[in-house]
Design a protein that fits this description.
Layout lengths: L5 E4 L6 H14 L4 E4 L2 H8 L8 E3 L25 E4 L8 H13 L6 E4 L5 H13 L6 E5 L3 H10 L2 E4 L8 H8 L4 E4 L4 H5 L3 E4 L4 H12 L2 H15 L4 H21 L2
Parallel strand pairs: 1-2, 2-3, 4-5, 4-7, 5-6, 7-8, 8-9
Length: 266
Amino acid sequence: MLGLGLLVVLGYGAIYVTVVRNAYDIYKRVPVALGMAVSQYVRDFLVGRGTDPGKVRVVLHGIDMDGRASAGSGPSPIAGSEFIFAVSKFVRYANLETLILAYGEMRRRGVLLPLLLAGGSWDGRYEVEIKRLVAEQGLAASVDFLGYIPRERVIRHLRECSLFLFPSTLEACPFTLLEALASGAPIVTARSGPMWEIAGDAALYFDPKDHHGLADQAVALLGQPVRRAALRDHALDRARKFPWEESISALVHTFEDAVRRGERRR
């Protein structure tokens, strides 16, 4: 909450629900001139709980398309091999159990590509559960936990992966998904939250807890190289709809509007 009467509802990851609910409580208790949400999904959440729709402005994140062709130069992550990629720290909303169960089914259906998972520890108990599940599924030799890696390396992996899997169930404006689009990754993502708002028809979707559905989409796409190439192009086109210039302009206009509204109430 800012002194000029602007409430910024960012909603990030594990704190998203708390942030949005607290924002709604603030709307009820204090004279907010204008609120800002990072997606239509967040705005709908607030308005659906009684917030005045005229007081919530959507300002989406932007993505930088420059410099990606040369990002992460150097040897490929797995020399001479294709791979499947996923990015998430160990948090329960990341839905990594669905990812691992789906990958296990993919292996049983003949997919031999390794799964690389980038992201570090957050919930230690959940991390233990996921690594135990990997062992139980007989996938220890096929799943590579990379930990936290530099952004340049993430972009390199997104650009070169055969498939990017994003099973998250709780996002406000998923920057990871924007990065995947901007890197031209062929994407399969959960049908949850703002995923369609961000990726549109530049990705394939599955029900968040349906690991069979994820496996079906992934196996089918891996067997269709022409379709994957088309999705890569479509992802790049989609990413161009989120320039930082528009985000910054919308942010400035929202601040200016909040100041004007605040001054009129004095």
